[in-house]
């Protein structure tokens, strides 16, 4: 083999080096490198990108990212993929949804596009923001490695100030969706492992001082704003014109917090008041629409703006038959419209951070939200690298959405085994959630102790709301045990039934019994009747609004789908259980009004 250029410095080494990816697994694009983007005018980089799947990671081994555009006849060495030529795919998208042969593909996907920019003025900076890429994303510009992000559902930013030259540049993203034991989630999930850049990609230009973070909230009865600025600014000004309020915040090491003298009308599902907030610092300017409300736990009550509330909820995945995990404004609005038809005031956005538009729309429409990170099932709790990844995903989610009044609960895990390692891991996550945001409740979806038939989980002492996933009438056949659990348990804090339900196949399901629509409806009826008698149950989010795609469900009724939806995967066909839950929520809502 000849050695002709420095791309693959040594072609044989590229074949033999099994540490080829180590330099690129830096995880240095994380919560601390985010910039605040509310109110910024960005340049969309969505659209067609060159694309290639790469099962063997040949691209990292051979350094495809370092290839420059050339005509085939001008190249001096053979190549296995030309990132500047070949087929294109739309961004955002999930590759599974684009070609049948990519349906089960798990590995690296290479995205490349040209990016032409004007000269950057003196004292200006550029940042690239990727809304989400599943799961590991490595960023290269003009052949240079600029950073790596782990976590499939949170945004990340990379500074391009020094990396882009005037004129044409080449941006390459290597996105890898391989499931591994140490990740968050780990290898086994009950939702589909999509891959790709499936949320928006945007280029922002800022002054030297850039607002990295803005957190505005009601705390201790006062409106409080915290700002983080990267750059020479020594004060930040926060204004809420609708309240005639403003404050100059002195910055120390780029950070500052101050109170505003303001009396906002409170945000609630019935009165979703929002206020424009602007923040200026060193020539940079960002803005947001913020609602103000309180949420707390008092004994076994969940208390919104001083009044106990029952969460009439539904769980929802970000999944679509045609686009996978790639969503749209219309898709999100349809989800909320269906939730409204059900009579919900609450949604559980399972099991990972959904698109940020969801919480913005919930703010406008007046829904309460449970947001979650994918600490799901048997995460590698003893592994510090896994904790680091989970902590970063949680921090990115909280920083992205902590100005959203709709978000009332940060959920740090789902159905994890009650081990010492898990308890230590989850306590640290609860601490992170509270340190980043002391104004919301922390929850986790726990399991009931089936042996002792009661709600019992050591994590409960460290969270505010105990989520309980229980499937009496489905996975647990003896329905009567649910009543026994109810009697045996005396939790000292609110319980939300974060999941319950049953599969019902609307196309091929039998007339009766498991997988029939009739059986699904019966489970809902029985669940509602039993849960109604449990005083400490302060909400429910049954599983789930729509049927969703998943690899591990392959019986004749499932056919690759979890069929517990109240509505089928077409997002149109309602199953009978939908009306049963809607009738229950109508009753509950009427009781609250009286
Ligand atoms: C659960 C999980 C959820 C599953 C669901 C089911 O307990 O939390 O992710 O999809 O059950 O349908 O089994």
TrEMBL record:
<keyword id="KW-0378">Hydrolase</keyword>
<feature type="domain" description="Glycoside hydrolase family 2 immunoglobulin-like beta-sandwich">
    <location>
        <begin position="263"/>
        <end position="293"/>
    </location>
</feature>
<feature type="domain" description="Glycoside hydrolase family 2 catalytic">
    <location>
        <begin position="298"/>
        <end position="580"/>
    </location>
</feature>
<dbReference type="InterPro" id="IPR023232">
    <property type="entry name" value="Glyco_hydro_2_AS"/>
</dbReference>
<dbReference type="GO" id="GO:0004553">
    <property type="term" value="F:hydrolase activity, hydrolyzing O-glycosyl compounds"/>
</dbReference>
<comment type="similarity">
    <text>Belongs to the glycosyl hydrolase 2 family.</text>
</comment>
<dbReference type="InterPro" id="IPR036156">
    <property type="entry name" value="Beta-gal/glucu_dom_sf"/>
</dbReference>
<dbReference type="InterPro" id="IPR006104">
    <property type="entry name" value="Glyco_hydro_2_N"/>
</dbReference>
<dbReference type="InterPro" id="IPR017853">
    <property type="entry name" value="GH"/>
</dbReference>
<dbReference type="Pfam" id="PF02836">
    <property type="entry name" value="Glyco_hydro_2_C"/>
</dbReference>
<dbReference type="InterPro" id="IPR051913">
    <property type="entry name" value="GH2_Domain-Containing"/>
</dbReference>
<dbReference type="InterPro" id="IPR006102">
    <property type="entry name" value="Ig-like_GH2"/>
</dbReference>
<dbReference type="InterPro" id="IPR006101">
    <property type="entry name" value="Glyco_hydro_2"/>
</dbReference>
<dbReference type="InterPro" id="IPR006103">
    <property type="entry name" value="Glyco_hydro_2_cat"/>
</dbReference>
<dbReference type="Pfam" id="PF02837">
    <property type="entry name" value="Glyco_hydro_2_N"/>
</dbReference>
<dbReference type="Pfam" id="PF00703">
    <property type="entry name" value="Glyco_hydro_2"/>
</dbReference>
<keyword id="KW-0326">Glycosidase</keyword>
<dbReference type="InterPro" id="IPR013783">
    <property type="entry name" value="Ig-like_fold"/>
</dbReference>
<dbReference type="GO" id="GO:0005975">
    <property type="term" value="P:carbohydrate metabolic process"/>
</dbReference>
<feature type="domain" description="Glycosyl hydrolases family 2 sugar binding">
    <location>
        <begin position="43"/>
        <end position="207"/>
    </location>
</feature>
<dbReference type="InterPro" id="IPR008979">
    <property type="entry name" value="Galactose-bd-like_sf"/>
</dbReference>
<protein>
    <submittedName>
        <fullName>Glycosyl hydrolase family 2</fullName>
    </submittedName>
</protein>
């Amino acid at each position: 083999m000849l050695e002709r250029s420095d791309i693959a410095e040594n072609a044989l080494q590229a074949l033999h080096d099994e540490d080829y990816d180590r330099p690129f697994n830096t995880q240095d694009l994380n919560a601390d490198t985010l910039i605040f983007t509310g109110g910024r005018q960005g340049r969309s980089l969505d659209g067609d990108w060159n694309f290639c799947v790469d099962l063997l990671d040949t691209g990292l081994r051979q350094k495809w990212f370092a290839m420059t555009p050339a005509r085939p006849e001008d190249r001096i060495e053979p190549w296995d993929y030309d990132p500047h030529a070949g087929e294109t795919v739309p961004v955002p998208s999930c590759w599974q949804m684009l070609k049948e042969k990519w349906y089960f593909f798990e590995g690296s996907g290479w995205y490349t596009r040209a990016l032409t920019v004007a000269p950057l003025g003196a004292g200006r900076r550029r940042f690239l923001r990727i809304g989400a890429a599943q799961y590991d994303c490595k960023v290269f510009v003009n052949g240079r490695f600029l950073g790596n992000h782990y976590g499939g559902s949170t945004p990340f930013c990379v500074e391009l100030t020094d990396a882009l030259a005037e004129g044409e540049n080449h941006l390459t993203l290597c996105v890898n969706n391989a499931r591994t034991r140490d990740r968050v989630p780990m290898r086994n999930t009950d939702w589909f492992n999509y891959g790709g850049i499936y949320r928006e990609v945007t280029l922002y230009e800022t002054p030297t001082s850039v607002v990295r973070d803005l957190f505005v909230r009601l705390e201790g009865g006062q409106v409080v704003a915290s700002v983080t600025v990267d750059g020479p600014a020594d004060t930040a000004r926060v204004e809420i014109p609708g309240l005639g309020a403003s404050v100059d915040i002195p910055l120390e090491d780029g950070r500052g917090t101050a109170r505003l003298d303001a009396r906002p009308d409170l945000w609630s599902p019935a009165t979703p008041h929002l206020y424009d907030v602007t923040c200026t610092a060193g020539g940079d300017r960002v803005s947001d629409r913020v609602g103000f409300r309180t949420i707390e736990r008092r004994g076994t009550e969940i208390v919104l703006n001083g009044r106990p509330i029952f969460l009439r909820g539904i769980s929802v995945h970000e999944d679509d038959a045609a686009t996978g995990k790639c969503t749209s404004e219309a898709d999100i609005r349809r989800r909320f419209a269906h939730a409204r038809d059900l009579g919900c005031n609450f949604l559980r956005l399972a099991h990972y951070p959904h698109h940020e538009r969801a919480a913005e729309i919930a703010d406008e429409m007046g829904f309460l939200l449970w947001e979650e990170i994918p600490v799901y099932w048997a995460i590698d709790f003893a592994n510090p690298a896994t904790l680091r990844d989970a902590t970063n995903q949680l921090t990115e989610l909280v920083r992205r959405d902590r100005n959203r009044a709709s978000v009332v609960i940060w959920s740090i895990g789902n159905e994890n085994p009650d081990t010492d390692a898990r308890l230590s891991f989850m306590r640290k996550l609860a601490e992170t959630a509270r340190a980043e945001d002391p104004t919301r409740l922390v929850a986790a979806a726990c399991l009931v102790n089936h042996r002792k038939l009661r709600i019992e989980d050591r994590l409960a002492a460290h969270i505010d709301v105990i989520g309980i996933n229980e499937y009496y009438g489905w996975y647990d056949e003896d329905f009567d045990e649910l009543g026994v659990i109810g009697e045996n348990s005396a939790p000292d804090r609110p319980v939300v039934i974060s999941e319950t339900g049953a599969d019902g196949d609307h196309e091929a399901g039998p007339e009766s019994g498991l997988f029939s629509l009739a059986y699904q409806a019966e489970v809902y009826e029985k669940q509602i009747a039993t849960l109604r008698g449990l005083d400490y149950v302060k909400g429910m989010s049954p599983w789930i609004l729509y049927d969703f795609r998943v690899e591990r469900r392959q019986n004749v009724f499932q056919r690759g789908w979890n069929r517990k939806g109240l509505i089928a995967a077409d997002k149109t066909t309602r199953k009978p259980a939908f009306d049963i839950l809607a009738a229950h929520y109508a009753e509950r809502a009427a009781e609250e009004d009286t």
